[in-house]
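Hypothesis: this fold can be encoded by more than one sequence.
Test: take the structure tokens below, design a sequence, compare later.
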């Protein structure tokens, strides 16, 4: 399901931008109505912040391209802001106004892999020449539907896309039994990847807008001249991480919530 509230004129084809950024925002039903509102308002405040606009102005082309969609299960991708160029405070304010003009609607299940796949598809047809292509995916739980998340991540990385994460280490809404305590580690091991990939955890909803703002500043200005660095090999004994933990939790507990269907 795709629904667009874009209010911007189409950008000129092949326009150069510093980064093409897809914001993939979780609206699974494990989040409460209040949390969905805070999330939408947080993205609006962060995008329109002077710090983000300043970071955009420091790029080679002084402009970025942004699109934002909300996701839940692997068949739900609701476009809120279509591909839009931001190069001024007025542009950023206009995107924020679009975000505040409607409200988020919670949907069933959690398919991070579906979100990554949809975002990668948007970057394949982005109508700009971008030095970097980045997916910024937020979420408050592990993948529990669709293809394995690591498979989707690896497919996107193979196309030269970087995936950054915003794991929400919060407890609200319904479906708390599907949360995991180490969601930040899950995102590090299973979700993010590509040149300069990073994640910024959110531990409290009061931190949300600030976390998004910091993350956007880092993504916009991060490693424009990134080059792989040679790191001496080290032996690190560490338990392998189970990237299918969300699917396994659903198999164990999901039958109890067929009507809820997180």
């Amino acid at each position: 399901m795709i629904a667009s509230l874009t209010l911007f004129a189409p950008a000129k084809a092949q326009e150069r931008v510093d980064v093409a950024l897809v914001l993939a925002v979780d609206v699974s039903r494990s989040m409460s109505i209040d949390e969905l509102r805070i999330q939408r308002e947080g993205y609006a405040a962060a995008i329109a912040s002077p710090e983000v606009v300043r970071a955009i102005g420091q790029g080679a082309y002084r402009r970025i391209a942004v699109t934002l969609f909300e996701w839940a299960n692997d068949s739900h991708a609701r476009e809120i802001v279509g591909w839009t160029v931001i190069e001024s405070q007025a542009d950023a304010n206009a995107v924020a106004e679009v975000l505040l003009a409607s409200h988020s609607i919670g949907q069933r299940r959690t398919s991070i892999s579906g979100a990554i796949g949809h975002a990668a598809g948007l970057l394949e047809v982005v109508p700009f020449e971008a030095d970097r292509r980045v997916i910024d995916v937020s979420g408050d739980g592990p993948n529990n539907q669709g293809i394995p998340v690591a498979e989707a991540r690896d497919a996107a990385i193979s196309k030269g896309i970087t995936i950054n994460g915003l794991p929400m280490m919060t407890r609200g809404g319904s479906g708390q039994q599907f949360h995991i305590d180490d969601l930040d580690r899950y995102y590090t091991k299973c979700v993010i990847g590509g040149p300069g990939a990073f994640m910024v955890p959110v531990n409290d909803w009061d931190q949300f807008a600030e976390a998004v703002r910091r993350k956007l500043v880092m993504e916009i200005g991060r490693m424009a001249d990134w080059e792989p660095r040679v790191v001496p090999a080290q032996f690190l004994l560490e338990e392998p991480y189970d990237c299918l933990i969300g699917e396994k939790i659903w198999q164990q507990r999901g039958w109890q919530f067929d009507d809820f269907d997180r």
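The beta strands are 15-26, 64-71, 77-86, 128-139, 162-167. The first strand starts at residue 15 and ends at 26.
Hypothesis status: open.
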